[in-house]
C-alpha cells in the first residue's frame, strides 16, 4: 500500500462493513424524502466509500462523482509512485516551482505536526524507509541496516530543511519526502469539502479506515464507527458515535518490511529504527489529515508522550492499544463511545 509508508489504518475492512450495515439500516428507517446513496471504488491503493444523505438519486450520484474526482486529483499531485506527480518531481529534482497550492498547503501543515510531536512525525523520513526496504527487497541482505548506515541516512531527515517560498518548494540534495502519513487523510477532507460545496450536510467519506463524518444519519442519529480488535477481526474494541469529526488509526498489524523478520514499516524519524512502542493508536480530530498525522505521531511517541501530546491539543482525543493489549484513552475519548 503506497499511502501508509509512515502509518497504516487498521479498521479499513471492518469499518467498511459496519458502515454498509448502517447504510442499509438507514435506507429502511429514513424518511421517504431522505435516503443514503453510496458508492465504493478502489483508489489510492485502498477502498474508498462515499455516502451522502439526499432526496434525489441523480443529484446524489453527481455529487459523489465530483467527490471521487477530487480524490483522484489529490492522488495525481501527491503520489510518490507517479513520476509525473509534483511530489515525485520534488523528490527527483530537489525543487518544484509554481507547485499546486494544495501540495504547498499540505507540506506546510506537516511542519505543524512535526513541531507538535517533537519530530516524531516527519515527512522527510523517506530515505530511512528506502534504506530499510532495500535490505529486505530481492537481492538485499535480508538483515537490518547497520547503525552507520542509519546514522548516515538520518542526515537527510530534517523537516526544517524543506523550504517554502510562495508556491516554490525546495530541499537539500538527496532529501526525499513522503506524504504517506497524510495524503489519504487530506484526500478524504477534500472530498468532504466538495460534498459540502454541493450542499450536502450529512454523509461520510471513508478511505481504507481514514474516515470523516458530517451531520447525522437520516434518522437524526450519529454515525457509528467500529475499531477492529487486533486479535479478532470480527470483533470491535469499541464502537464510536461520530458526528462532524474524523477518525484514523495507525499501527503495524500486518504490514512489515519483511514478513519473516516482522520488522515494522513505521520508522521513528528521530532514531531511524522501526517503531514498536504500541500495537495501535486511534485519533479523533476535526479533520482527517489531522487524525491521520496525529495517529502516526502517537504511535511513534508511545503511550506516555503520545497521550501528553494529545491532551495539549484542543478537539483531539485518542485510544491506544499497548503491546500488552491494555486499552488506554485520553481524557475525553469516552464521550465518543457508544453507550
Automatic annotation (TrEMBL):
The keyword Transferase applies. Keywords: FAD, Flavoprotein, Magnesium, Metal-binding, Transferase. Pfam families: ApbE. It is an enzyme of class 2 (transferase). It catalyses: L-threonyl-[protein] + FAD = FMN-L-threonyl-[protein] + AMP + H(+). InterPro entries: ApbE (IPR024932), ApbE-like_sf (IPR003374). This is FAD:protein FMN transferase.
